[in-house]
Amino acid sequence: MVPMHEETDIVGGDLLALPDSVTAREALDWVRRIESESLANHSIRAFLFARLLARHRGMRPGSDYDPELLFLACVLHDVGLTDEGNGSQRFEVDGADLAAEFMTARGFAAEAVDTVWEAIALHTSMGIAERRGAVCALLHGGTVIDFTALGSEFITDAAAKLIHDAYPRLSVVRALVDAIVGQVAARPEKGPPITVPGELARERGERGSSLLEDLALAGPRWGS
């Protein structure tokens, strides 16, 4: 492990750099075609925040985690909310299945595919995702930071501004919850009880909002 770093030494420089492999470019192009700009930007920001989180924790890319697999997990983690990924399962699992198909078609080893599948399938599973390996934990951390700003204390305002200027939020909190609840409304089996999709749909139906989106929108840093 390397010593812990603040992200200030990479503000500007490589803070916004994305992996440039053929598969990474294809994944990003695909997501931008099938997702709204709001959701696609969220997925990219999740990667940038996840990478800062890894650095903050003293984790070294290529040694403690695979940066390409982290990118694929982050950028593909919401494909289950698209028309292409909308199957009969909760969106996290539909998205994991579609991401696995994408990677398998490009020759990734089964172990790498499983790493990304598990990270996407568990990215809303607090208390579990953190214990299922580096990619899973970092995807979970990156999405939580982007959606709620919880755990973002180590990220400077300057770094956050660069990321949000490059990839604007575009009311992502509402966009994500609307997409999840919309799927459950159309196909109730996609929101089983005591799951994130099921609880969001139940709360929206009962009170017109959900505790999760209220928490995110009330946050002192990102807001909507």
Topology (SSEs and partners):
Elements (H helix, E strand, L loop, with lengths): L21 H13 L2 H20 L10 H9 L15 H14 L5 H12 L12 H15 L8 H10 L5 H15 L9 H12 L3 H7 L7
Describe the fold and architecture.
Helix content is 57%, strand content 0%. It has 224 residues and is mainly α. The protein has a single domain, classed as Orthogonal Bundle (Hypothetical protein af1432). The model is unreliable at 1-9 (pLDDT under 50).
Give structural attributes:
224 residues; globular
Write the CATH fold name. Answer: Hypothetical protein af1432
User: What is the total domain count?
Assistant: 1
Given the helix and strand composition, which structural class is it?
Answer: mainly alpha
- How many strands, which pairing sense, and closed or not: the largest β-sheet? none
CATH architectural name:
Orthogonal Bundle
* Strand-residue proportion: under 5%
Globally, the shape reads: globular
Query: How widely separated are the two ends?
Result: 35 Å
Low-confidence stretches: 1-9
| Cα-atom radius of gyration | 17 Å
User: How many individual helices?
Assistant: 10
N-to-C order of helices and strands: HHHHHHHHHH
Q: Overall pLDDT, averaged?
A: 90
Number of strands: 0
Helix content: 55-70%
The gist of it:
This protein has helices at 22-34, 37-56, 67-75, 91-104, 110-121, 134-148, 157-166, 172-186, 196-207, 211-217. The chain has 224 residues and is mostly helical.
